[in-house]
Amino acid sequence: MRAAPDYYSYYKATVNDSTRHPRLEGDEVADVCIIGGGYTGLSTTLGLAEKGYAVTLLESFNIGWGASGRNGGQLIHGIGGKSYLRKKYGPDIEAFINRLCWRGHEIVEENIKKYDIECDLKYGYLDCAFKTRQMSDLEEEFEHYDSLGMGDRFRLVSANELSDYIGTSVYKGGLYNDRDAHLHPLNLCLGEARAAAGLGAKIYEQSQVLSITHGREPRVHTEHGSIRAKIVVLAGNAYHLLEQKHVGGILFPAGTYIIATEPLGDNMAHDVLPADVAVCDLNEMLNYYRLSSDKRMLFGGRCNYSGREPRDIKASIKPRMLQIFPQLKGTRIDFQWGGKIGIVINRIPQLGRIGDNVYYAQGYSGHGINQTHIVGEILTAAICGQMEDFDVYAKAKHWKIPAPRWVGNNMVALGMMYYRIRDLL
Ligand SMILES: Cc1cc2nc3c(=O)[nH]c(=O)nc-3n(C[C@H](O)[C@H](O)[C@H](O)COP(=O)(O)OP(=O)(O)OC[C@H]3O[C@@H](n4cnc5c(N)ncnc54)[C@H](O)[C@@H]3O)c2cc1C
């Protein structure tokens, strides 16, 4: 099995389900074989299991091992690549964009409710502007949602009013909404896996897929077994290296990192985030942060395209946290970890098919909790024969860099450096 960076994250330390699934041993059959136990794979597995399909999910390591079990936990609305979609499809696409805008939230909420998933869901989210031009973007966004009749869920927050939400004076203002949320991402994964297994889906861990033999009924091979299925779904996102002839050179893995402080106690927690909301700031090299249920500051940021993991995550993230919250100077850091996101140049999640029966879905550019759930629903519908939403994504054109991954990553890194310099100016 390939080496892979792993961390003991705050999420791993606070899982509420210790179920372990067996390794695949021997040859089996399924209607659908899903590769990857993150939200893309899990939400598709759950969607298909609900419809009575015999589904088998194969995961290299453990459920939620990838980005889905490590992320910032910020459930943020919207889909990626809107400007591309508008250019490609014209005004008719607005209905699609608006229909999907909150669909990921609805699916997550339905799953939590239907399957009794404990994952610390809390509402409230704030985008913060460092610069006046970013504030103008937020004002435009507010007007957009207001024109769609959602103005009552959003609130423009001036620099003076920010203290209701956040204990810092570094921002020029923000845009708050009460519909976005934050949650414990790994416990959501484990809950969705439990729900799918409860409906008869088979889940195998420690079962890395090594290859796919294509054909009328493709066969997926692991070291110790295989699954023959009518349909295969490739949901390994930034972590897989399968089918590179088809999906190589279009997705660029990038590392992003999080630290968790010691529990802050009620007073300090109230001082830094009095409304207990999730926050992102608007720089291209953004910071994202929130409180955990036991009142630690979970602070994330930085994007690394080199593929080399930083030796000391804390040393690079803590100064960013102190720039916003100097009052946390003496606070201990208890956990540090990172994971890989899949960057797509035009920001549109990449959905497609290799032949008729191998689907893939990847590339949420760091904005994946809602979009993976939307994509899971779209894949489920496509496998059931309703291709309309799938085709909107599948017809998108993606830049392909026909060179080894490190070359593509360095090109994306150069592009991001431009934005970094712009952030600093
Ligand atoms: C540190 C961090 C912070 C983030 N913060 C946020 C946030 O706050 N809000 C937000 O919306 N998004 C966030 N994201 C992005 C979000 O987590 C991802 O977009 C989303 O989880 C992707 O889900 P996925 O299922 O497609 O991929 P993953 O969760 O990465 O899952 C892929 C899985 O496939 C498995 N796999 C790969 N290859 C194989 C193989 N050959 N055989 C079997 N299994 C295989 C991997 O082991 C992995 O478990 C963050 C990501 C990171 C890393």
Strand and helix map with partners:
Layout: H1 10-13, E1 26-35, H2 39-50, E2 55-58, E3 74-75, H3 82-89, H4 94-101, H5 103-114, E4 122-129, H6 132-147, E5 154-158, E6 173-182, H7 185-198, E7 202-204, E8 209-213, E9 219-222, E10 225-234, H8 244-247, E11 252-261, H9 265-272, E12 278-281, E13 287-291, E14 297-304, H10 313-324, E15 333-343, E16 350-354, E17 358-362, H11 369-383, H12 388-394, H13 405-424
Parallel strand pairs: 1-2, 1-10, 2-7, 4-12, 10-17
Antiparallel strand pairs: 3-6, 4-6, 5-6, 8-9, 9-10, 11-14, 11-15, 12-13, 13-14, 16-17
Q: What is the 3D shape?
A: globular
* Count of alpha/pi helices: 13
Q: Cofactors and ligands present?
A: flavin-adenine dinucleotide
CATH architecture heading of one domain: 2-Layer Sandwich
SSE-based structural type: alpha/beta
Q: Quick one: biggest sheet?
A: 9 strands, mixed
Over all CA atoms, what is the radius of gyration? 21 Å
SSE topology string: HEHEEHHHEHEEHEEEEHEHEEEHEEEHHH
